[in-house]
Amino acid sequence: xxxxxxxxxxxxxxxxxxENSSRYMESIGKFxxxxxxxxxxxxxxxxxxxxxxxxPYSNGKVEYVDNFKRFIEYMNIEVVDIDSNIAEQGAKIRGxxxxxxxxxxxxxxxxxxxxxxMFFTNxxxxxxxxxxxxxxxEDI
Length: 140
Prior knowledge:
5 strands
């Protein structure tokens, strides 16, 4: 795992951790332990909240909603609203990387605007973006 002091976390790592993914639980647990021990600031966006909560709401699993909210609070995660500055940065990213979806570009744009030094996801395609280092589950 590389050194970083401020990390943006995409939606998938939250899902793997909070839903106890057998495939990734050990590695994501190490990641969050590192963040806690080394006082690494964690950032995410309101898009993560929207993406994460779709399945719990559609399946009626309110406990997942509550667990997610408690985890965000417990870990003192900064949740950033998408504003026009982030939207413009996202448009630049989509202009440069033709196959990026709007949600992915906005997530990366948020990380750039908030001056994160690492982007943590499990979407290997996002490694194409060169302004911000990208780490996936396999990198842990």
